Batch of 2 targets.
Target 1
Amino acid sequence: MLHVVVCIKQVPEITEVSIDRRTNTLVREGVPSIINPFDMYAIEEGLRLKEAHGGTVSVISMGPPQVESSLKEAVAMGADRAVLLSDSRFAGADTLATAYTLAQGIRRLGQFDLVICGKQAIDGDTGQVGPGLAEELGIPHVTYVRRIRELGDGMLRVERMVEGGWELISTTLPALISVVKDINEPRLPSLKGIMRAKRTPVTVWGLEELGCDPQRVGLTGSATEVVRIWTPEPRESGELLQGDPEQQARQLVERLRGLGVI
Amino acid sequence: MEGKGRPAILKEECTGCGACVEACPIGAIRMHDGLAQIDESCNLCGGCRDVCPSGAIRFPEEDREKQPAVAEHHHVWVFAEVRQGKLASVVPELLGAGRRLADQLGESLHAVVVTAPREEIYQQLFGYGADAVWQVEHELVFEGDEMARAAALCQLIRRERPAVVLFGATAMGRSLAPRIATRLKTGLTADCTGLEIDPETRLLRQIRPAFGGNIMAEILTKYRRPQMATVRPRVMKAPRFRPDSSGPIHHFVPAELDGGLTLEELVLEEVETVNLEDADIIVSGGRGLGDPRNFALLEELARLLGAAVGASRAAVDSGWIPYPHQVGQTGKTVAPKVYIAVGISGAIQHLVGMQSSDVIVAINKNPDAPIFKVATYGIVGDLFEVVPALIRQLKKMRGVT
Amino acid sequence: MQYFLSEEQEAIRDLARRLAEEKIRPQAPVLDEREEFPSQLMKELARADLFAVPFPEEYGGMGYGLFELCLVVEQLAWACAGVATSYAASFLGALPILEFGTEDQKRRYLPSLAAGERMAAFALTEPEAGSDAGAISTTAVRDGDHYVLNGTKQWITNGGEADVYTVIALTDKTKGARGASAFVVEKGTPGFSFGKKEKKLGIRCSVTRELSFTDCRVPAHNRLGREGMGFLIAMRTLDKARPGVGALAVGLAQGALDEAVAYASQRVQFGKPISSFQAIGHKLADMATLIEASRALVYQVARSIDAGQRDFSKESAMAKLFPADVAMRVTLEAVQVFGGYGYMRDYPVEKRMRDAKILQIYEGTNEIQRNIIASALVRELKSRRR
Ligand SMILES: Cc1cc2nc3c(=O)[nH]c(=O)nc-3n(C[C@H](O)[C@H](O)[C@H](O)COP(=O)(O)OP(=O)(O)OC[C@H]3O[C@@H](n4cnc5c(N)ncnc54)[C@H](O)[C@@H]3O)c2cc1C
Ligand SMILES: Cc1cc2nc3c(=O)[nH]c(=O)nc-3n(C[C@H](O)[C@H](O)[C@H](O)COP(=O)(O)OP(=O)(O)OC[C@H]3O[C@@H](n4cnc5c(N)ncnc54)[C@H](O)[C@@H]3O)c2cc1C
């Protein structure tokens, strides 16, 4: 029986985030949360593997209690089990502490064959948690997977996107992959799934249940420290090139030559 | 506030002045009954503590595990990625940035190679400013097994104790660096756009965008070493190449290594055009092109400019052009010198992938399209008239010069 | 307005809305332009369990009623009335089996229909029998344990795409309408073929085809109810399905209103957004009011039917008539709000106007709905006098 673990992160809906130019801060008031878009591909891939090979899909996330709604959505899509790693001491974790905490959670889930992450989260944009988690779990990882060619008999063969093309890579299971949008088209939840999600409780594990070293979680366990956050200057308003297409084109070529970029 | 992960507000001290509310960059502080209240989303940036006039904000104790050896780490290292026998274009840029850091520290700049030894690679590394080169020697490492590469690099870093290690934010760099940082239990900052040494603390100040460039953050790795960062291609400037430079080459043969991955095949797809990641100029097409055949028009323009071809998600999802060309939130993040958006409306998910380009050109028939808000130069018009005109102008220019 | 939906009803509505927004809306203009049946979208609806909503749990359904079906149809129509029609017509085809089928018939057909693996269609209309359904001439002649069907059905929604057809045919020509019976005919039955696909004004992605029966042998155990009950079955089916058409109208009109409001707030003439002109503002206000009245009517009639109201022909006719007329008026006004842009196919409102017209025609024209209501009024008066 295949056991796939999918890691998801809840992020603010970017289209709703705006910047208050007066205070120069992010306006988060009433901004809805969504599952990190890349993680949707991870969930979908997990579900497809389950459909093809049988087995179970667990979704796991570290975050505050409101992340339950995202985990429930994954259950509505078809995941079998949802686990939230939540503890006020986990707050402020960087990718190092997050990878450690997730690894503790996944170990507690028991035997597993494959861990799937999204390529990166759209808020932090680092893509570091996947490889870090694989390291914590002591399993190989492949990033930017755009297709799973083969899975079985303790081995995995995937296509990985790299600059200018792709690589065919094989490795042993258990392993971790991070996936890109090209890999599939995520499904919407089903109604039966939604009703099941309403009934399925989300398992919540805190620091003690996970047996975490308090020195390695949250802010304390983080190696990096954000010392300052600010919003960049808005782009200066541009210039609309006037005239007929020929004149517009001529002006553009002149401008670009003037800047020395062509 | 009782949460250990959040700063505490000392009720007796808080005057309710609201300075912290103003200062919080993520809006996590609110006034409640005349007292400041910090919610779950606090990321402990410390902005509030700095502005609080009465010292009413207490942060969780910084009783983190301090590595005793912080002071014993020296020199700046650059991971010298080699792809298909060629030095990745980001490496000279990293050497340029690394050189500055090394000079600020008064230390030296080293480059690490994990691919099979090649004289011309060494020459380039020295030519772009490396003082020394580390050549890792192991079959698995040469074969492209990233797990073996990570393991070998960890051994070397543990032994040599560099203060700073920089990687390109390439497919390989973004895979190796977090693996290594986790094994070394040190900090890693992704996609830095600015790097400098704080003259007082000698710490590496790492500046990076988050939220698709909507916010910027400064990040420090205070107590662990090395300080690791990835840097996006095309952000740092490559130094002038000095052909006659040279330096010592150290060979490192790692202790036994466990492999992990087998690289069976590498298939290059975009041989005709330039990679999005490496391009100085990108010409991107959106739904406005209306038909896959019209991408030929963009390709012609791209050829004349020596540009790569990008696309919006709408164009990719319509099957007009493959996914590797997609720019934006669920595609690639690019920052070329010139980004030309043709028939792209400029949805926020597209903008976050390209808004840090130096010059943005928008060609769109709808004057209200949001792309014009970020455009350096806007052309309101029908792309089927404007692009051919542009092609004519460029051909004329080429003829003249 | 707050309709106090249960948590589950909200989940049904929200899921249908998500499908409408994310999957249907982006494709609606293309499907319309190409007059293409939305097979892929039907699969998506099936996978989301939306076909299962109004079927009982013992047949693989979710066990909800007409009201929940209306919630789904409304949201689908908000994005595309053609897609909503294809979905709703499948339930129309399944209704006779659900209401009048034997246990064996239900077991054979309902689970796959509830799963959306197969679609259904309802075939009553013929070239010579439109509003006057009693004038049908398709015959079904008993021959041993089979019936032999001959004749032609016209303008059958989902024709050719559906796998299961409920067909009304005459088993006794001499008795006219009282001589009709209902049959389940499966696609692929020898002698059952399809005519050309119609080219329509609106709901162009919904497929409308002719069904042709030539010595088509249908097993006798595929007859629904007794011989002679065909007309009753057809009328009961239509009575029950009409609030669904009303819901379709509400969704379609709401979509047009949403677009008109957005456009009116953004279009500037004489230096102001056109929404600030009272002529436009009042138009929008009337549209909104009519839509809310339609929705309230549809929801209440559907809820009453689910709650067990016995005779509901009149109310269900009202719940089709009024919303359909409202949808027509609202979509016409929406085009007016858009002005010349509204007349262009680059903008979404002309499609809605074309789509709306069918609602006044199919499943009983609005004139016929008024007849039903009027005759019910007279009947009620008589029974009160008695
Ligand atoms: C979770 C999520 C992730 C996403 N990720 C991405 C992403 O990574 N990248 C991305 O691009 N999008 C992404 N999107 C989609 C994004 O929201 C937009 O839908 C998409 O960018 C629109 O593409 P477009 O600009 O090509 O199309 P449209 O928005 O349809 O714009 C087409 C433009 O072409 C113009 N035009 C038409 N004809 C002509 C002509 N003849 N001459 C000149 N101009 C013309 C029109 O005026 C219009 O502005 C994402 C969406 C979501 C929900
Ligand atoms: C797109 C489409 C899909 C359809 N799908 C199906 C389907 O799936 N299954 C099916 O069985 N049928 C279907 N139909 C047929 C539809 O139900 C009939 O078109 C409808 O019942 C009207 O019949 P008719 O078109 O023959 O009009 P007619 O009956 O000829 O009516 C013409 C006009 O006369 C009026 N009229 C007729 N009789 C009276 C009267 N007694 N009093 C007052 N006015 C009267 C009508 O209201 C109308 O205005 C479909 C039709 C279309 C166009």
Target 2
Amino acid sequence: MSVVLRVENVYKSFGGVKALEGVSMTVNEGMILGLIGPNGAGKTTLFNVITGYYKPDKGRVELFGRDVTGWPTHKIAQLGVARTFQIPKPFPDLTVFENVLVSIKFSSRKLSEQEAAEEAKRILEFLGLDSHAHMLASQLNVALEKRLELARALARQPRLLLLDEVLAGLNPSEVAYMLEKIKRAKQEFGLTIVMIEHVMHAVMNIADRIVVLHLGKKLAEGTPEEIARDPRVIEAYLGDPKLALAFVERLSSKKR
Amino acid sequence: MEAKNILRELARGRMITNITVAAIILALLTIGIGSLYSETLSYYRETLSTFMMLFSVVLGLNIILGYTGYVSFGHAVFFGIGGYTAMVLMYYYGVNVYLAMIIAALAAMAAAQAIGFIVLRLRGAYFAIATIAVLEAFRVIVSNVEYLGGSEGLQLEASYYTGYSIAGYRGQMSVHYIAYFLLLGTVTLGLLLNLYVSRSQFGAGLRAIREDEDAAEAIGINTWKFKTLAYVLSSITPALAGAIIAWKRNIVLPEEFFSLTLSIESIISVMLGGAGTVLGTVTGTAIYHTVKTIFLTSFPSLHLIIFGITIAFIAEVLPMGIIGWLRLMSTRLRFLLE
Amino acid sequence: MVVSPELIMGGLVSGIIIGSLYGLAALGLSIIWGVLKVVNLSHGALIALSMYLVYTLSVMYGVPLPVALLASILTGFLLGIAAYYLFVHRVLGGPELASLLSTFGFGLIILGILELAFGGIARTIPVSQHVIEVGHAPIMLVQIIGAIIAVAVAVGAYLLLYRTWFGRAVRAVVMNAEASALMGVNVVRVLALSFTLGVLFAVTAGSLLSLAYSFTPETGTKYELYSFTIVVLGGLGNPLGSLVGGIILGIAEQLTSVIVSGSWGPLVAFLILLVMLIVRPTGLFAKL
Ligand SMILES: Nc1ncnc2c1ncn2[C@@H]1O[C@H](COP(=O)(O)OP(=O)(O)OP(=O)(O)O)[C@@H](O)[C@H]1O
Ligand SMILES: [Mg+2]
């Protein structure tokens, strides 16, 4: 199994805030890695470092075996990395269809106009967005906005998909729907996925491995079972294991 | 709607736009040729020349403001750079207007590259203000440099024009006619550039930048390269128009060439029609120019007030412009109106 | 050209004096920008308007100067309230371009009226020519009084924003308008008052500047760009930052005038602006 993403000893601070302090992790091809941790743990910052929005103060990022530290975001994207944003960033005055189409156009695939339009159509159908295809993205509700984020990322046919809280703010049936779609997309496209998530039962259910960040440091790493039993995690993050589920559920329902 | 149908509607929309654009160019050409042989058309020749001058700036501005979303508030800076470059070449070196135009456009593109390097890292209002500052800075510099004529400007001698002729008109008599056709050529180039941007992958990238620059980067768009190129392209037709007008009026003046008013007029025109649409540039400029001409002749002293009311009205009531508003009315119109 | 130390000294002193007026004008722009997130492109026109108000009252109608100044400032206040509801309220929260355009439109209307009423000839307000020597530099008493007023108003603004209930409400709205509304802050009133306050500072600065230099309707544009520069120098919504930024710009401008020539003065402002925008768009004194 080849290594898709390797993060080595990454540091990043903003003024006095140390967002990342020596984080390392490895993501193998074909797996789903769950990235969890309390608010402000540095999860989004880690995504931003991986995708080149921020240059790490120290440390290395390797993608598909290449050192990409300090590369600009678009070059990293062109390697086959797609991401969603925690606060969705649709192209508001383009239609849902146009949002996906432009993403397809800038993926590495060479498609004719006709093929690109059909592909866009297919992805919208896959995520149940086809009936909203010609609405402006700015008119979507949160749940549909999250789907559009996912659609636009999938449209790139990435090798590595970074999902930043795509389940936040969704009701239980929407969460189930998204999870189902993520699983299917992984199978169909052979994706490797890193997902940041607060919806704990979801991430426990879907992830092969879990990394816990806490105050910018990696606190623990292991299978979902190991993490759920790890006393340090329980102490730092989950508190009383019996209350854990209720707690994280409450966290996940807060909307940012 | 099926993918096939969408493409069909899009193709139909492009056909409509092509026909409209071709019809406008042909009509302007006909009037131009007509004016060579009929004195009665000379009024139209002049007012259409003024229209095409503004339109040239608008077509440039639409690329950076309309498609890319960067509010260039001082876009007349390229008109000024074009005008002054051409004038220096004509005044000091006796270069003919055609070569002067080409060099003026190249100079403006180089300037856009350099200015863009500074201002394109700014977003939103900061970018807008920086472009005003660039325009004002150019005006101050030009009015203080003796080589460029200072605040008096540079003026061509009548003898400079002896070599020009068209359809029997010679020297200075020919200038208004030739300038008309040169402006028409510039407008044609500007329309072609806008059509290219509207339909190309490049233009799709610009729209993505306009909508959300971070997300555009994330889908693999080299936003810096794209917006710089857009800014450079947006300087071409304003510079050509500046060169032509410098030649036509035989004088360049700092206030008239590095003009905030011209910048604002082009913004109004773009917004009135609908930023980032080809048909909008024509519609907006035509309406604005017509209204302005009417008001300027009937109430010359009220024009600033009328400008102001128009701008505020557009901003508060119709920020997406006429074509932009129509495009929102139905999916079909969105595909049909380019 | 020989530049004597006296000339430099004179440039410094008049830079500080005139710069504090620039700073006050910039404060007007800064508050509106900081609180409403609107770049008020009618700023320059409002400054010009206040100059002509002082001119009309004191020169054309012989009203005593202090009264004319007060009347001009009061008019600016009323105009600010009206302008908020006519030109600003509807574009808040919309695209940036909409607020740029609507305030610019308002500015053009003012300019048009000024052009109509006064034409483009430069006007001057005759004031007492009494001169005081400040470190070998002769400075007109009127300008010194103007500078003192400007500093006092800026300090007052600081106290208002950081020591009063109104200031707390303003800062709450800046941080989170929705939450402030839930907590009982009348958000619209805070926004309208902040805008009016911004206009008030602009017209106060304009009224005082009218005593220092001759002016035309176009003059406002220059002060508007100066204000941008200062806001970028001093950071958004920071009264003391504006004052310091204004003084820096004033000194730079006056020294350039002394060393090179008066007409190059404005260029320095634009260069400072561009350099600042590149190097540190959050300003020298911005709070993080
Ligand atoms: N651009 C920035 N400038 C300053 N501070 C930042 C910036 N980005 C992140 N931070 C800080 O870095 C820390 C980590 O933030 P980050 O967004 O990575 O957390 P997170 O784990 O994603 O949290 P959440 O679950 O709330 O999304 C926080 O203290 C945050 O305030
Ligand atoms: Mg986060």
